[in-house]
Amino acid sequence: MNIKELNANLSVSEQLLPSNISELAKRGVRVLICNRPDGEGSDQPLFSEIEKAAVEHGIQCHYLPVITGKVGDEEAAAFGELLKHDGPIHAYCRSGMRSTTLWALSQAKHLPLADIVATAKAAGYDMSGVAARIAGKTGEINALQTYDVVIVGGGAAGIATAASLLARNSALSIAIIDPADKHYYQPGWTLVGAGIFTPEQTMREMASLIPKGADWIKAAVATFDPDSNTVTLEGCRLIKYARLVVAAGIKLNWDGIEGLSETIGRNGVTSNYRYDLAPYTWELVRNLKGGRALFTQPPMPIKCAGAPQKAMYLSGDHWYKNQGINNINIEFYNAGAVLFGVADYVPALMEYVKKYQADLKFNHKLVRIDGDNKTAYFETATADGSTEIVSREFDMIHVCPPQTAPDFIRSSPLVDAAGWVDVDQYTLRHKRYNNIWALGDVCNAPNAKTAAAARVQAPIVAANIIADTKGSHKIAHYNGYGSCPLTVERGKIVLAEFGYGGMLLPSFPKWFIDGTKPTRAAWFLKEKLLPPIYWRAMLKGKEWLVNPVMSDEA
Fold this sequence. Notes:
29 strands, seven-stranded mixed β-sheet, 3 domains, globular, Protein-Tyrosine Phosphatase, Chain A, FAD/NAD-binding_dom, alpha/beta, FAD/NAD(P)-binding domain, 15 helices
C-alpha cells in the first residue's frame, strides 16, 4: 500500500485490500472514503469487504464512487463535506487520482491554485488538467502528445495489438493507456480454483509487458471525442491520435445480484472470476465433504462462457476421485437454455454431467444471495409464461457475475444500443468512425469473449491498421474464432474451437486433438503450453497459428 499525504488530515492511495486496514488503523485513520465504484477491476475487493474490515478497527466508512474521469462538482462538494469529519482521513480509488482530483476541486475556494497543483505533484499526481478546469480554461487545453495509434486497454487484446503493430512497422508511435499496475492471465484462474496453479503464476507487472517502442500512459480514460480524434484522461488531460484501438475489456457487475457484494468471499460464496477469490474456491472444494454445491451462469454475454461449468467439472472431479461424490449434490443453474452454445461439444460434456451426478437447471437466473442463511434465489419461467422466484440452500456456491462493458465505454459515442463498441464483425473496424477499431471483450462482434479470440483478432486489427496507413484497399477478415478449453476433469479437456454461426474451427488434426472428445493432449496444451504462449508469443507479437490473409475489401 503506497500512502500519499496531501495534508496533515488527508492521505490517499491506490485500491486497498481488507488486509491493509490494520495499517491504516495504526496510523490513526478514523475516516475512510472509497471513490472507486465496485466492479472496475478483476482484482478489486468490493467496498463491503473493505467496510467490514474497517468497522472492526473502529474506522468510519463512506462510499462516494466516481466513474473514472467523471469527477463532477457535486461529487467534489460531497467530498469536501466528508473532509469536515475529525481525522485523520484516508481516501482511495484505483490509483489515488480520483481521490486527489476530488480534493483539488473541493479546495478551489480555500487554497491558492498553485498550492493545490504543487501539493498534488509532490504526492505524484498531475493536476494540470484540473487546474485548467478550476481556472475556467478547460476549452484551451492542448493535447499532450499525438500518436499514430492510441490503444485503450493494456489487457491481452491491447498489448497483443501493440506488439503486432510494432512487428509490422517499428516506426509507429504507439501509446497504450491503462492505469493498472498488474496484468493477469485470466484463463489460469480456473486452474487456481482447482488447486493446479497458484495465483502468482497468473500475474505479471504491467511494466514488464509493454512492448518495446510503445509508450505506457498509466491513467484511465474518461471520455472519447472521435470527431476531434482525442481521448480525455482522468485529470482532464488530452491525448490525440491518428488511429484508435479500443480494447478496454469487460466489467464484472457484482452488484447485479442482490446480496452478492455483502457475502462474496465468505459464507461459502466464491467465484473464479476474481484473482483473490479463486483460491477460496479451492479451499471450499477440498474442505467440502458433504452437502449441496451450486454453480451459476448469468445471461450472455460473459467472458469465457465455459468458465462457470469448468468450475463445476473440476470440483466434481476432485470429489469423485476422493470418494465424496455420492455425498455432494451438484447443481448447475444456467440463465440460458442450453449447456453449451455449440451443439457438437454437448455429448462429451453430458457424459461428465452424468459422471458427477450434476443436476442441470436451465432458464434459472441467480438474482439474490442470502449468505448468512446460505440460500440462493433464482428467477425462472413458469408454464404460463410468467416468472417466479425459487430458493435453494447451499453449502458452497460458485457465482459468475453478470457482465457489461465498462462504464466509460457505455457512456461514450462509440457504442451500440446495448453498450458495446459498435464494429463490423469481420474487419473489427468501427461502423461509423473509420479510424477506430475495437477487439476483445469490449466489442459487439458476436464471437465468444475469450483470450483465444483476442489472440486471433489482434494480428487482424494490426494488419488492417497497417493497410489503412498505406491507403491499401486490401483487408484481413476475422472469422469469429474463439476457443474454450473445457476442463472436464484434471488431466482431460474438451477443446471447443469454433467461429461465427457455431462453425467448428479446429487448430489441430483430429488424430492429435479431437475437440469433440476429452483428451489428455488438450490438457497438456492448456496447462503447459498456453501460458508460455500467452506471455512469450501473443504479448510479444509472435502470432502463433494466426496468419492474416489480405484480400480485396468487400
